[in-house]
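Why does residue order matter? Because the sequence determines the fold. Keep that principle in mind as you read this record.
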Amino acid sequence: MQKMGDVEVASSPNWETLERFVRREAQHFIQRVLEEEVAEFLGRKKSERRTPAEGTDGYRNGFGKTRRLSLSVGTVEVRRPRVRGVNEPFERKVLPLFKRQSKDVQALLPELYLHGLALRL
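Structure:
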């Protein structure tokens, strides 16, 4: 059993925990992709030392604030890795700076508002 918030969840999903399982797996996948993006940008994996001959600047500097991202499977929280000491700015392709919703959710919100289902309280 794993603890998810205040609820204990079995390690293999069942019908009652399937949605939480899918959301958690989506969160882990996005987090891995963000880490791989930083590794590709810096040219080395996390905790891997830079050789003096490489001369590539930059280093990891922890994580930014936890961000909520709305997807079609629900809202997940991800931590964006930070990069410091680089000559060119690190522009993320996976999760741009001010994006909080997927395109599917952005297209759905006006429809919900028109039908009175989203009241922005």
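The mean pLDDT is 77.
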